[in-house]
Amino acid sequence: MAFLSGEYDHKIDPESNRVSLKVELKKMLTDTGFTGTYYLTLGERGVLCLYPEKVYEQFVFKGAPKNEGGEVKDDQIVAYERMNFGFATRCELDKQGRLLIPQRIRRRAVLGTDIVIVGVNDHLEIWDPDRWEAYAEQMLPVHNQQHGGARKAAFEEALSRKL
Known about the structure:
Layout: E1 7-13, E2 18-20, H1 23-31, E3 37-42, E4 48-52, H2 53-62, H3 74-87, E5 89-92, E6 98-100, H4 103-108, E7 114-120, E8 123-127, H5 129-162
Antiparallel strand pairs: 1-2, 1-7, 2-6, 3-4, 3-5, 4-8, 7-8
């Protein structure tokens, strides 16, 4: 199972609004099959998210607001469509492996020149370094608890196969 992971320090060229992806990040995108067309959109907490096209298509349609019966809420669908499709920018990496981050979306995400690109399973997130560090610090206790639970579950599964 292939997924995107890790933290990568990058810089946005202030003149062109492009970021040159590092070799290891480009290789990971290729190795996971996440190549071709992407969607760059504003995610939770104002973070920029870069989704491979197929992942974004699944995400955006499955995430539509639904009522308790599982039906799409008519009164919220217009706002949902406006925000999700309006904020999304279809993009591709150029031949040098650079990603254009349009000024408007860069401003909404409050990104300066320095950024951190974080691999998050099926997409990349683009963070301001200070905001990423603050978030990571805040979430570290939760991570420790989840990691411990996952290790225990993996150990118990391995143990049950041995018995």
